[in-house]
Amino acid sequence: MAMAVFVQDGDCIDYTPTADVASGDVVIVNNIIAVATSQILNGKLGAVQMTGVFDFAKATAATDNGAVGTNWYWDNTAFKATKTATGNILIGVSVPSAAGANGVLAADTLVRIKLDEGTHTTNSGKDVKVIPIALAGLVNAQVRRLAIPFAFELVSFGIRTGTIATTAAKLATITAGIAAVPVTGGIASLTTVSNSVSGTLTAATAITAGGLGNAGDAIEFTVSAVTAFVEGDAVIEAIIQRK
Questions:
Q1: How far apart (Å, rounded) are the C-alpha atoms in residues 128 and 187?
Q2: Which of 18, 165, 179, 194 meets the CB 3.0–4.6 Å disulfide criterion with 217?
Q3: pTM of the complete model
Q4: How big is the chain by its Cα radius of gyration, in Å?
Q5: Sequence-ordered list of residues with C-beta below 8 angstroms from that of 183, at least 6 positions apart, any chain
Q6: Is 163 helix (H, G, I), strand (E, B) or coil?
Q7: pLDDT of the chain along its 243 residues, tens only?
Q8: Cα dist. 137→6, 28, 131, 193, 232 in Å?
């Protein structure tokens, strides 16, 4: 079997909300910012946009200004884009607009942002890499890979539930490795129960050795001990430290 099978371009992903979502609403999917481009009713399967350029409502504090290419973050309390990273979620970088060809002023009420598409840098200098997985597609010996373009340490990982699994007694084990070599530790055990609440993170065991990688090495996640899931999806969230 192929080690990876193309599923979709990734511009949009499936999303089932727990409350009605209006077109233009900002949606947080496992710590990633997405945008609804059409209405999605509570409990109904829809799709949200993970890529592209959008005009976001913007905070107007004195510090909320910057040149093109500045990182902007989503304040999910004020429901506005801000330059303040602490406590907020990276949206992406500002790009030129007719109103702000050279940057964004503090008094501006909109900022044009290219969505980050799922790579997040934390204040500690660690990056969060995400790999979507369909639970029903998990089979023994399957490997999901993501090449890292810089020297790094794989600090930890976990599996965060998206669409829940409902069929009982399903399970799989996911083990981390780097450049085809398993790390010591780094094992996540998935079950129907652990994937029964959307947004839940199933943490892997601690990585105690073998977590260092060179520029160009891939972090790898190998599937084993599968009792096939029938439904559900999730993302692998891997935390890496630049070295």
A1: 18
A2: 179
A3: 0.52
A4: 19
A5: 154, 176, 177, 207, 209, 210, 211
A6: coil
A7: 567 777 667 788 888 998 999 999 999 887 789 999 999 999 999 999 988 899 999 998 888 888 887 888 899 899 999 988 777 888 988 888 766 666 788 888 999 998 876 544 443 456 788 888 889 999 999 999 988 887 889 989 999 888 899 999 999 999 999 999 999 999 999 999 998 988 888 999 999 999 999 888 999 999 999 999 999 888 898 988 877
A8: 12, 24, 14, 18, 10
